Amino acid sequence: MNLTLQSLNAERSTVDRIALMVGAPAIDIGDADHYAWRCRGISYSEALKVELDRICYEAGIDYAFSAPSAALSDFKLLAMDMDSTLITIECIDEIADMQGLKPQVAAITEAAMRGELEFDESLIQRVALLKGLDASALQRVYDERVQLSPGAENMLTAIKAAGLKTLLVSGGFTFFTDRIKTRLGLDVTHANELEIVDGKLTGKVLGGIVNAEEKKLTVQRVCADLGISPAQAIVMGDGANDLKMMDIAGLSVAFRAKPIVRAQAGVALNFVGLDGILPIFA
C-alpha cells in the first residue's frame, strides 16, 4: 500500500525515522501550504498502525494508507458534517453565548460529541436553553463567528473538479446549512430546524431530529438518488453522532475528531486541513 504522511511543521528527521520503520523512502509530494510525503510498497499490519498512531500523533503528523491505484474520481459523493468539521465552531454553543449560557451548553455539546450523552436528549436540552432569544442572534453568529475550517475551499474545488456531488448533513440547524450551501455551491443539505415564533426562538426543534441514524439514512438516500453505492461516498465528521454514516462509507475521514471517532475512521486528519484528503489520492 501507499503511506501518505502530512504535517504543517514536522521535522524531516521524524519523517526519515518513520520511513526507516516502514522500509521505504519518503518521497516529497508537498506544496507551499503544508508538508507531505509518500512511502510506496508498504505492507500494512495492525501492529504497524498502532506504532504509527503513537509516533505520528506525538510528532504532529497525519498519516493514511491507500491503494496505489486509488483516485478521487473513484468516489461520487462527499458527505460532510458541519459543526467542527466544515466550519470551526459549534453553532449552538455560539448561539447560547448570546444568552450568556455558552459554558452550560458547550459542556452538553462536548459530552454528546464524545458519545457520553444520547444525542436527541442532548439537543432537546440545549435548544430549550435558547428559549426567548431573539432570532436575529442567528444572523449575528453567522456573520461574526462562522469560519470555514482550514483547507475547506481547496478541498471542495478539487472534489467538484473530480465530479463528486456534495452533501452537508448536520445535527445543527438549517439557518446555517442553507447559507453555507449557497456560499459554497453545495448540492444537498439536511439539518434541524429551529422553531421561531414572533421573532423569538421557542426552545424547540421542528420535525424529527437529525441524529446519528438520520445522518446515515440521509447518506443512503442521497446515494440512492445518485444511483451509487455508499461505498462510493467519502464521509467526514468529528463526533460520535457521525459514526453511523461514516461506517457505511467507502472512505471515512475523522477531522480533528473526538478519540472515539479517530479510532474508528479510515483516515484521521488531526493536524492538517480538510484538503489533507487530497494528497492521499495524488
UniProtKB/TrEMBL annotation:
Record-stated family: Belongs to the HAD-like hydrolase superfamily. SerB family.
UniProt-listed InterPro entries: HAD-like_SerB, HAD-like_sf, HAD_sf, PSP
EC identifiers of the protein: 3.1.3.3
Gene: serB
Entry superkingdom: Bacteria
PANTHER family per UniProt: PHOSPHOSERINE PHOSPHATASE
GO MF annotation terms: hydrolase activity
Transmembrane segments: none
A Pfam family matched in the record: Hydrolase
Swiss-Prot/TrEMBL cofactor(s): Mg(2+)
Catalytic activity entry: O-phospho-D-serine + H2O = D-serine + phosphate; O-phospho-L-serine + H2O = L-serine + phosphate
Entry keyword annotation includes Magnesium: yes
Keywords: Amino-acid biosynthesis, Hydrolase, Magnesium, Metal-binding, Serine biosynthesis
Organism: Paraherbaspirillum soli
The keyword GTP-binding belongs to this UniProt entry's keyword annotation: no
Protein name: Phosphoserine phosphatase
Listed pathway(s): Amino-acid biosynthesis; L-serine biosynthesis; L-serine from 3-phospho-D-glycerate: step 3/3
